C-alpha cells in the first residue's frame, strides 16, 4: 500500500503532494499522507540493503550514518507535513463541533415531540428546549472565537495537543449543571402561580442536589489539580511529554503512546454513567436540580481518586543501568576504545508518543563533553535502534581516553543519570 501511494504518478493535479492549503481534498491531509508513504518506502528499502551509494556501501559505520541522515531528513518532512495537517484539521473542527451541537438540539426536539404524544406539551418541555438553544448558541459563539484551536473542544485540548480526560469530564458536568439551571430559570420565568415559583426556587437548594454539586466540585478540582501535577512532574523531569500532531477522540481513553489505560477508562465510563443518571433524573423532575444519590456520588469520587492516583503513578525518569562494548559475531573481547560502538542499557529512553522517526532522531548521548546523535537503524516495520531499553552509539574520536561519563538525552529533553565508563587508547 505504501509503495503504491509513493509511486503514484505526478499527474494527480496541482494540489497533489506538497499542497498545504487545507481547503481541498488534495491539501494538507494529502501532502501528509504522501510524505508518510514515501518515508515508509525509503525505510523499508534501507532495511533491505537497497539504495545505498557505492561510496559508503563498503563501510558499515559510514552506511549506517548515511542511512540515519537520510531517514532523519525524510522524517522531518513528515513531521512538518503532520503539523500543517494538524493545524488544518483544527481549523475545520470548529464547524463540525457547531454542527454536532445543533444536531443535539434537533435530537432533543424530536425526543420531546415523540414523548409528548399522549401526555401533551408542557412548560417543562419548552424550558428544556429553550435552555438547549441558549447552550447551543453559547457553544457556537465559543467555537467561532476559538475556531483556530478546535472550536468548542478548545478548552479540553491540553498543552500537549491531546484531548484531556480530566478536562473533558469536568466540562461535561459543567455544561450539564448549567443546562439544568437554565431549565429552572425558564420554568421560573414562565410560572405565574406563587406556589409554583416557590417550589422552583426551593429546587435550587443545596440539600436537594448535594450529591451532584459535590461531584461537580470534585471533577473540576481534579481537572485543575491534574494540570498542576503533570506540569510539575514535567518540569521536575519525572514525566516525559511530547507534543502530538493533533488531538484524537482516543486520547480520552489512552496514554500518550496510544495504549488504553485503566485509570482513564474507568473515569470516563463511571462519569458518563453518572451523568446519564443525572440527565434522566432531570427529565423526570424538571422542577429541581438533579438529586444524585450519595451512593452513586461516592462511586464517582472513588473513580476520580483512582484517576488522580494514576496520574501520580505514571511516567518516571529514564535511567541508564549499564554500558557495554557492542560486539558483533567473530569480534574479540576488548575494552572500549574510540571508534567502538557502545550499547547503553536502561529504561525509558523513548517517551510515550515518541516512536516516530522524527522524535527518535532527536535522541542524543553525551559521551564526556561530546554530543553524539543516536543513529537510526531501520528494520522492516520499524527501527532496531534506538529502543526504549537499549540504544547503540559510536564513541567519537574526540573523546579523550580515560574515565568519561555517559548520559542519554531523550526526545522529550529529559536527561538520564550519568554512567562512568573507561575509554582506552
Automatic annotation (TrEMBL):
Record key words, sorted: Membrane, Transmembrane, Transmembrane helix
Protein name as catalogued: Integral membrane protein
Transmembrane segments: 99-121, 127-147, 168-189, 209-230, 262-280, 292-310
InterPro entries the UniProt entry points to: Ig-like_fold (IPR013783)
Amino acid at each position: 500500500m505504501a509503495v503504491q501511494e509513493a509511486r503514484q504518478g505526478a499527474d494527480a493535479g496541482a494540489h497533489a503532494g506538497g499542497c498545504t492549503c487545507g481547503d481541498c481534498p488534495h491539501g494538507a491531509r494529502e501532502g501528509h499522507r504522501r510524505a508518510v508513504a514515501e518515508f515508509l518506502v525509503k525505510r523499508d528499502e534501507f532495511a533491505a540493503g537497497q539504495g545505498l551509494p557505492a561510496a559508503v556501501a563498503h563501510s558499515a559505520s559510514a552506511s549506517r550514518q548515511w542511512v540515519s541522515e537520510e531517514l532523519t531528513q525524510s522524517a522531518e518532512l513528515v513531521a512538518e507535513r503532520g503539523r500543517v495537517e494538524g493545524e488544518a484539521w483544527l481549523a475545520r473542527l470548529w464547524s463540525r463541533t457547531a454542527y454536532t451541537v445543533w444536531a443535539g438540539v434537533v435530537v432533543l426536539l424530536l425526543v420531546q415531540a415523540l414523548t409528548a404524544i399522549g401526555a401533551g406539551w408542557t412548560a417543562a418541555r419548552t424550558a428544556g428546549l429553550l435552555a438547549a438553544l441558549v447552550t447551543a448558541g453559547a457553544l457556537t459563539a465559543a467555537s467561532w472565537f476559538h475556531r483556530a484551536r478546535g472550536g468548542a473542544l478548545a478548552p479540553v485540548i491540553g498543552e500537549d495537543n491531546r484531548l484531556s480526560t480530566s478536562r473533558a469530564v469536568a466540562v461535561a458536568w459543567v455544561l450539564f449543571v448549567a443546562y439544568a439551571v437554565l431549565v429552572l430559570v425558564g420554568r421560573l420565568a414562565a410560572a405565574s402561580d406563587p406556589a409554583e415559583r416557590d417550589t422552583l426556587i426551593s429546587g435550587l437548594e443545596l440539600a436537594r442536589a448535594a450529591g451532584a454539586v459535590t461531584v461537580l466540585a470534585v471533577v473540576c478540582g481534579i481537572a485543575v489539580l491534574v494540570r498542576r501535577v503533570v506540569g510539575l512532574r514535567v518540569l521536575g523531569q519525572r514525566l516525559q511529554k511530547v507534543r502530538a500532531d493533533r488531538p484524537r477522540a482516543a486520547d480520552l481513553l489512552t496514554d500518550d503512546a496510544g495504549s488504553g489505560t485503566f485509570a482513564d477508562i474507568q473515569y470516563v465510563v463511571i462519569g458518563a454513567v453518572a451523568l446519564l443518571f443525572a440527565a434522566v433524573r432531570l427529565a423526570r423532575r424538571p422542577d429541581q436540580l438533579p438529586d444524585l444519590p450519595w451512593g452513586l456520588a461516592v462511586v464517582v469520587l472513588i473513580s476520580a481518586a483512582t484517576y488522580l492516583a494514576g496520574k501520580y503513578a505514571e511516567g518516571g525518569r529514564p535511567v541508564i543501568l549499564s554500558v557495554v562494548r557492542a560486539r558483533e559475531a567473530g569480534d574479540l573481547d576488548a575494552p572500549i576504545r574510540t571508534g567502538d560502538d557502545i550499547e547503553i542499557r536502561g529504561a525509558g529512553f523513548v517517551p510515550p508518543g515518541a516512536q516516530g522517526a522524527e522524535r527518535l532522531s532527536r535522541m542524543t548521548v553525551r559521551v564526556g563533553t561530546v554530543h553524539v546523535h543516536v543513529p537510526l537503524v531501520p528494520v522492516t516495520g520499524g527501527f532496531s535502534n534506538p529502543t526504549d531499553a537499549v540504544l547503540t552509539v559510536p564513541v567519537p574520536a574526540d573523546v579523550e581516553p580515560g574515565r568519561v561519563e555517559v548520559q542519554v538525552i531523550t526526545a522529550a529533553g529529559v536527561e538520564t543519570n550519568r554512567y562512568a565508563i573507561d575509554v582506552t587508547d
